[in-house]
Design brief:
globular, Four Helix Bundle (Hemerythrin (Met), subunit A), mainly alpha, single chain
Length: 198
């Protein structure tokens, strides 16, 4: 047994190649895989759309897991701080833009959500020097509702009963409302020097 004192792992000791960062990297890799299935054939093949949904769901789950691992097992790194929000925005952006290109989602929905997401991400990095940005329940709820809404639109709803499309639009409406409200809240909080997590 070593006689050296044992110290808790620090950010530099954690290393870039930890499980949390590997999950973030996996999410980045899954983005083109998701798009491959989303645009397979004419973009509306049932099997391909269901597969695209599964890939999207796995990517969303990795977002949840990497954050929990980083916080609970001291795996926070500079790479993770930068790559995690980039991976998140790439996944959401790819899904929204892809759905709009296929005509399944109006472009105004994509623009509203992406302007908010990119704007808040830029602002988030701008205020990081002020200290740790606390998480907000609204931001977490927004992320969950966004993922559910986008996931519903990825599914081949055109071949399902019309009630499913109605449900998808209700959930998307809630996602848009939460996106705008939490974005405005973040701007106000950041201006006051605190900030709420995106």
């Amino acid at each position: 047994m070593s006689g050296q004192p044992q110290t808790p792992p620090t950010e530099s000791q954690a290393g870039v190649a930890n499980l949390a960062n590997l999950l973030t990297a996996l999410r980045l890799v899954l983005v083109p895989v998701f798009l491959l299935f989303l645009f397979a054939g004419d973009g509306h093949q049932t099997g391909s759309r269901v597969t695209a949904f599964i890939v999207f769901a796995v990517a969303v789950i990795t977002d949840r897991l990497d954050g929990e691992l980083a916080r609970n097992y001291n795996m926070v790194t500079e790479f993770g701080k930068l790559a995690d929000p980039i991976a998140d925005k790439m996944l959401i952006g790819a899904a929204l833009i892809g759905l709009s290109m296929l005509g399944d989602l109006p472009w105004w929905v994509t623009v509203v959500i992406l302007v908010r997401e990119i704007g808040v991400t830029v602002l988030r990095f701008a205020v990081l020097s002020r200290g740790v940005i606390p998480a907000s329940r609204g931001g977490k709820l927004k992320t969950l509702v966004q993922a559910v809404a986008i996931g519903l639109f990825i599914l081949p709803l055109q071949s399902w009963p019309s009630q499913w499309m109605t449900v998808a639009w209700w959930v998307m409406g809630a996602a848009i409302a939460l996106t705008v409200i939490t974005g405005l809240d973040y701007v106000v909080s950041a201006a006051r020097g605190t900030g709420a997590d995106n």
